[in-house]
């Protein structure tokens, strides 16, 4: 029976709600956010990013401060995106005496204007192996990039960055094909990968022209004895552009960060608003119904907190106590319960005088029963609206505290990302892909809750309903 | 009767302010005590330089007595409650003392001078913003209310909800990125170019530096103000006296700006006065991003440098202004609505 009633009530509510267009829009955006908050980890390219956000080695294979991939659509000169080269052609040549030469050939089709920033090779295996990397260019020239004896381990992969280690080899390669040009290159100053993917003419330094076509990366390994083992190496192209939202100066993938931020914004916003509105409603009802000293004390407390400047206070408390995100949520609650207190208080004063309350009292109900069973259900709908309406401000406060470097650095919130952007000069260097998305998400989430809250307010708030 | 109401309100406000200062004193008691002790040591060391021809033993005793005197003067030898009490008293009487690290541009360490240097800058930026926003907001809100659900109204309420959860500092970052670095038409921050030009050129330069922060703030806050005015005016437009005025053939313009605006004034004034007095506190982050050395910026530097005297003074002054705003508001309410001064419950 109760279930049927509440179902009917919900249906009626939905009929009214579905007429408010902005509310529907807000709800739709919110559903997308909740979906991304829950299932986001299956969509992001770096699922462990939350734990490894400040771990340099976790991000080492990404390019630094790379624009997003879709930036190519708007730019005349297309940048090479990040890629993993897979399925190499493997040939094994027996050299006798148990020695064999293994060659892995990776194809890379380079059709861009701006060269990738790095070619990174990961090796895993057992033993010590002589090892060489060669790049075969579309013009048929093959450039030796690296040759050395390396010690392999089966637990941790050996990482070789061609941008860091191939400069002098590249200069040598250029000198062999064009000695005059080669003499102009300084191994300490050139970007070796860029030279390799450019036409070898006198503009290779000032205005390199991309040499498009099919490249091959050859990895040759000499296995000196049968006991030496090597897993198939993985070859990564660290692109000129990378990921859906680019990367920051610490090579972190920003799309991953922004998606993880959704979860934190939802947790912070919803948890804080629910706790503070519940506390505010309870205090409001208690102050109105119990009256007396209770009323006096709560009203004074309300006035006091209302006068406190929120952000300065949050900042000072954060600076002193260095709170975790949970402590910060509690501190924000201390300020936000006042938001619903006064309205609930005045509404409860009216409800208190209604006949059904009197009847219940005459039947011998306790005060707590009247407050919880009779008064709060009437005020509950109102509190939903005020929960939704208080969330945008809560999210902005958390972001503000984080932006000043006083937030919980162990979480990946939008404020934390923006703090890194601000302190590492993203504004001055115009790294817009680092600044715009997190802020846009804050605005979008705030907007969705504002739409929802206003729609709920229109339907549920008794004062506005009559209008 | 009215005088009694005003008196009651003012006394209550002062009491409330004292309680707030007491809370601040309690919160910062530990650090503040340390700061005061360090400052006493410094002062005593300076004073001892004046006595040149003294034996080392005499110096030690003199040092001790001077220090004891100072410690007694600042009530540092007393129990915790009493220390907090005397610190509150000093703060309430505007005796903020000297800063520990922060100095004014002339090198002064007097906290009042430091604050008086920062305050006008904040007022120029934020109070101007509130004035512009309130004036345009009232005008826009009135027009939006005249045709509810019309074009202006829809755009306005839409933008209100969009700007609702938009951090001002983020917009500031975007504005600087766009208008100072991509299309460099505004300076990226600060009060003036170095060295500061004088005369009319100086004024122009100041306005040039003011324009980007001011524009950012105005564009962000104007919509919600207009929306609020629209709601207030709309609720009044449904009153009978408006219908009566319309029935008498009074022009719509006059109904709007004459009759309705007048009855809406208390609510609009609440908004304006609270905004005006609140604007004195500035905005910590926006000031930081624009390099605008006002009160908000000063506050954050004080937090970072652990400069408790400046911190306390800034908080106290912000609270004072908010308090004064509330008191003025209540007094004006009493003037506009005679029912309130009796003190009857809502």
Characterize this entry briefly.
The complex is a heterodimer of chains A (467) and B (346). With 467 residues, chain A is an alpha+beta fold.
Number of helical elements of chain B: 13
Q: How would you spell out the order of helices and strands of chain B? A: HHHHHHHHHHHHH
Total strand count of chain B, please?
0
| Helical percentage of chain A | 40-55%
Number of helices of chain A: 17
Radius of gyration of chain A: 32 Å
Low-pLDDT segments, ≥5 res of chain A: 463-467
Q: Topology as H/E string of chain A?
A: HHHEEEEEEEHHHHEEEHHHHHHHHHH
Which assembly state applies to the chains in this document? Answer: heterodimer
Q: What is the CATH C level class of the largest domain in chain A, in words?
A: Mainly Alpha
Question: Gap between N and C termini of chain A, in Å?
Answer: 33 Å
- Helix/sheet category of chain A: alpha+beta
Largest sheet of chain A: 6 strands, antiparallel
The main sheet of chain B comes to:
none
- Spans of chain B of at least 5 consecutive residues whose pLDDT stays below 50 are none
- Class based on secondary structure composition and strand pairing of chain B: mainly alpha
Estimated helix fraction of chain B: over 70%
Mean pLDDT of chain A: 86
**Topology, number of strands of chain A:** 10
Average pLDDT of chain B: 85
As for the CATH topology of the largest domain in chain A, it is: MetI-like fold
Descriptive overview:
The complex is a heterodimer of chains A (467) and B (346). Chain A is α+β, with helices and mostly antiparallel strands and 467 residues long. Chain A folds into two domains: 2-46 and 253-465, MetI-like fold (Orthogonal Bundle), CATH 1.10.3720; 79-238, Jelly Rolls (Sandwich). Chain A is built from 17 helices and ten strands. Chain A has helices at residues 2-17, 21-39, 49-52, 162-165, 167-177, 179-184, 192-196, 254-290, 292-307, 310-321, 325-336, 338-352, 355-362, 367-403, 414-423, 432-460, 462-465; strands spanning 83-85, 89-96, 99-110, 118-123, 125-136, 142-152, 158-161, 213-223, 229-230, 234-238. In chain A, strands 2, 3, 5, 6, 8 and 9 form a six-stranded antiparallel sheet that branches. In chain A, strand 5 (125-136) and strand 6 (142-152) form a beta hairpin. In chain A, helix 8 (254-290) runs parallel beside helix 11 (325-336), helix 8 (254-290) runs parallel beside helix 16 and helix 14 runs parallel beside helix 15. Chain A is elongated, with a radius of gyration of 32 Å. With 346 residues, chain B is mostly helical. Helix content of chain B is 77%, strand content 0%. Chain B has helices at 2-48, 56-73, 80-92, 111-146, 151-164, 168-182, 199-237, 240-247, 252-278, 284-290, 295-305, 308-336, 338-341. The mean pLDDT of chain B is 85.
